[in-house]
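haha ok so turns out i had the wrong file open the whole time. this is the CORRECT one, sorry everyone. sequence first:
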Amino acid sequence: MRVGAAEKKPLAGYYVTNITDPSPFTGVIEMTALVDPAELRGNTLVYLAEVCRRDRRSMVAQYAEIEAEFLDGLARLFPQFSRDDMLAFRVSRVRYVFALSTIGYSSHVPPIETSIPGLFS
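then structure:
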């Protein structure tokens, strides 16, 4: 399942943020990290991804339940997120997905060595 949200400002500024903490979704994909914000009238396009089995509750949950659950999760992970910045929220449920590689993505990947000596990501 993929949830799309149009926002007035970026969340983290990274293309993909994998979520390992308990959350209703497993990844945050900020398309504006790769797409010129001018193409989105200066706004941000964010996908909240949940890769799940077809029998998972979220595959049959009502739209309002998913919106509430995902936005609550987003607010926990990104305290600067405000529902006032939301322009739109959409849910897409698909049985099969395939990740598409992005040309030139490696030039946007942050460095492996962090600013903390001896700490690598």
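The beta strands are 2-7, 16-18, 27-30, 44-49, 86-92.
again sry for the mixup
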